[in-house]
Amino acid sequence: MMDLYQIIKRPLITEKSTKQKEQLNQLAFEVDTRANKILVRNAIESIFKVKVLDVRVMNVKGKERRVGRNLGRKADWKKAIVRLAPGENIESFEGI
What we know:
By secondary structure, the chain is of the alpha+beta class. The protein has one domain (4-85): RRM (RNA recognition motif) domain (Alpha-Beta Plaits, 2-Layer Sandwich), CATH 3.30.70.330. It is 31% helix and 36% strand. It contains four helices and six strands. Strand 4 (64-67) and strand 5 form a beta hairpin.
């Protein structure tokens, strides 16, 4: 079993995720590629002490990038969209 802090890598702060947080009470995280919905739900509830209603998980393909004359590729990663219960929030996201 993975450690809770290995499952959640970092929060994703983008224009779209900020709008989702304000309107739909949803947060976006980059998660470990081996994590599933149940592991993500348990990690978020344990780390941040909030009630999670729904988790959506998607695989994101890495983009091709140029490295000089050569063509390189960024790594594939996994994204999770977490919907919190009404009235719940995560304090560290409030100032963003």
